[in-house]
Amino acid sequence: MPRVLRAAVDADRDTVLTWRNHPDVRAVSLTTHVISPEEHAKWWEAAMGDPRRHILIFDDKGVVIFDLREDPPSWSFYLDVAGLGGTLLATWMRLEQAAVRYAFDELGLERLGGETLATNAQVLALHRRFGFRETKRYERLIDGTPQTVVWTERVREH
Ligand SMILES: CC(C)(COP(=O)(O)OP(=O)(O)OC[C@H]1O[C@@H](n2cnc3c(N)ncnc32)[C@H](O)[C@@H]1OP(=O)(O)O)[C@@H](O)C(=O)NCCC(=O)NCCS
Predict the structure, then answer these.
(1) What are all long-range contacts of 24-31, with beta carbons under 8 Å and residues at least 24 apart?
(2) Theoretical Cys-Cys bridge with 5: which of 16, 56, 140, 157, CB 3.0 to 4.6 Å?
(3) What is the pLDDT of residues 122-137, one digit of tens each?
(4) Does residue 136 fall inside a structural domain?
(5) Ligand 1 neighbours (beta carbon < 6 A)
(6) Is position 140 within any domain?
(7) CATH number, domain containing residue 9
(8) Which of 14, 31, 91 to mutate to test the pocket of ligand 1 (most atoms within 8 A of CB)?
């Protein structure tokens, strides 16, 4: 059986950009402009070549990014919103479960954090369900407008 989360390869690059540029994903992101192929290629090359960053493809339906450059490490994700239609919530749950397992079992992390816009109630509820707790919130300029960002964190269960 193929692994649910697999390391991205360069053949995934253009698909991931299509997912990231979906209006619903941009609306909940920390930068909302349409990412150009050039900007994406630059980010992709840097992230793929960095042992402290992991781009993983979830069941060909979404992407999970772990960033271990800071302590605590953080993660982010987005799905193929256009392709998934009504199954979005179920896929979110499977993705989050797989991501949490990967972070603690495969990467061996002790803590995992993430940034979510305060307006993104569905994802905040999902994080709560998977044991993430809000530890701080702060304002961030999102395309020139201050918005509240919620930092949620989970520790490894021993
Ligand atoms: C949606 C989400 C992944 C967007 O992430 P983001 O706003 O791009 O922010 P990240 O912290 O992941 O990105 C870090 C950097 O990589 C860049 N980046 C991320 N993905 C990129 C891509 N595909 N192409 C180019 N650059 C990218 C960002 O622009 C940012 O650059 P900066 O640090 O120079 O500002 C993130 O906000 C998130 O995980 N939110 C909660 C989960 C959620 O709601 N997901 C969507 C549901 S479908």
Answers:
(1) 24/81, 25/78, 25/79, 25/81, 28/116, 28/117, 28/119, 28/120, 28/123, 29/78, 30/115, 30/117, 30/140, 30/142, 30/149, 31/142, 31/143
(2) 56
(3) 999 999 999 999 999 9
(4) no
(5) 16-17, 20, 25, 28-31, 35, 39-40, 43, 65, 76-79, 81, 116, 120, 123
(6) no
(7) 3.40.630.30
(8) 31
